[in-house]
């Protein structure tokens, strides 16, 4: 079974790249245009939970809410970006 992924609106387009790699990914922004009611962080997190999805977000509060409620989440916050920068610097 493929992992289902919900990409928060800040990273709209990542869903298409993940789909090209074989994942089953959806975009909050695109789901809204289809009429899904995903205007608040709560509704986005709840949608991910109900549909057994992994939420990919840059929103720290959403990431913390997922963690507190055992909802799979990939948080792309400044700390994660900093780790990537440090790893890239080590390669130079």
Protein model, in words:
The chain is built from 5 helices and 4 strands; from the N terminus they run E-H-E-H-H-E-H-E-H. With 92 residues, the chain is of the alpha/beta class. The chain has one domain. A 4-stranded parallel beta sheet has the order 2-1-3-4. Helix 1 links the parallel strand 1 (4-7) and strand 2. The longest helix is centred in the last third of the chain and has 14 residues, at 78-91. The termini are far apart. The mean pLDDT is 94.
Order of helices and strands: EHEHHEHEH
Principal-axis shape: globular
Structural class designation: alpha/beta
N→C terminal distance: 39 Å
CA gyration radius, whole angstroms: 14 Å
Residue stretches low in confidence (pLDDT < 50, at least 5 long) are none
Q: What proportion of the residues is helical, as a percent range?
A: 40-55%
Strand percentage lies at 15-25%
Q: Number of domains in the coordinates? A: 1
What is the average per-residue confidence, as pLDDT, rounded to a whole number? 94
The largest sheet has its strands arranged as 2-1-3-4
Q: Sheet bearing the most strands, described?
A: 4 strands, parallel
Number of helices: 5
Find the count of extended strands (DSSP E, 2+ residues).
4
């Amino acid at each position: 079974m493929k992992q289902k992924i919900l990409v928060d609106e800040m990273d709209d387009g990542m869903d298409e790249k993940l789909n090209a790699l074989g994942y089953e990914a959806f975009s909050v922004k695109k789901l809204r245009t289809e009429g899904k009611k995903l205007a608040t962080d709560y509704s986005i997190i709840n949608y991910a939970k109900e549909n057994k999805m992994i939420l990919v977000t840059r929103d720290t509060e959403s990431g913390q809410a997922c963690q507190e409620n055992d909802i799979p989440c990939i948080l792309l916050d400044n700390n994660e970006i900093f780790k990537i920068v440090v790893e890239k610097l080590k390669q130079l």
